[in-house]
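Here is one chain, start to finish.
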Amino acid sequence: MSSIPLQGWPAPAKLNLFLHITGRRADGYHLLQSVFQFLDYGDTLDFALRDDGQVLRAQALADVPPQQDLTVRAALALKHATAYPGGVEISVHKRLPMGGGLGGGSSDAATTLRVLNRLWGLDLTLDELAALGLSLGADVPVFVHGIAAWAEGVGEHLQVVDIAEPVYLVVNPGVSVATGIIFNDPQLTRDCKPVKICDFISGAVTNVCEPVVRMRYPEIAQALDWLMEKAGNARLTGTGGCAFAHFADAAQAHDIAKQLPSAWQGFVAKGCNCSPLHTRLSAY
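Its structure:
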């Protein structure tokens, strides 16, 4: 059994720096192009090992039954794939909003897979863990690999990218967006012409979910407009409901964060091409 710590494991947020949909598979899943980058901000997970084989969560999450909790599902998937006899109790200290487009649940699942792989002494490869993660959600593999990536397919085909790591202000207007609602909206653009990394670098990309989210959620439209006015740039992450803007100057980001309307929440974070989870695991 590994001697790595049981507590304080990061489950970082991600941003989709753009999001295009290039088609749809026969099973209904959308074919995507996106760039994922991590933030040095997110949830934190603690693990308590058990000898009785049970997989439990230490506290309930609002509106999430235990059988739907991604950390519990991730631990059970790993346990069943390896026939590991032991168990675990998982505590999730949430900072990332549900339905915010920041990948909180997927990141929690990936942290569970990677940390338990070490705590349980299983020695699965990152590719094997990512394959397990894909069964839990399309975003889980990028969190498992822990490196900023160009993503295609349903999000499972990843190519490492080395991009700028600016400071971001992330604004949460307090609206939870269900991905399925956006992906099933008849107004969603699903026929984007495939682009290349050079198109992303030149800025010739967008988030095709934004018009639909703006139409359905006026609060998010207001947050995007507010950010654009204050920062000169604003974009939706994933299917929402958080908006973000990038800054070269951290002081400017913090200054604008202080001006947030009282009904909204927000945070300033650094973009990371290497996940904080990946960095911490590398120390052991």
